[in-house]
Amino acid sequence: MDDVLAVPDSASAVFGDRLELAVAYAERLAGPGIERGLLGPREVPRIWDRHILNSAVVAELVDEGRIVADVGSGAGLPGIPLAIARPDLEVVLIEPLLRRSDFLTETVAALGLEGVRVLRSRAEDVRPRAGFDVVTARAVAPMDRLAGWTLPLLRPGGVLLALKGRSVSEELRDSAASLARMGAASWRVEEAGAGVVDPVARIAVVVAGRRGTAPKQGARQRRTN
Question: Which of 63, 75, 190, 196 has the lowest tally of Cβ within 10 angstroms?
Answer without folding.
Answer: 63
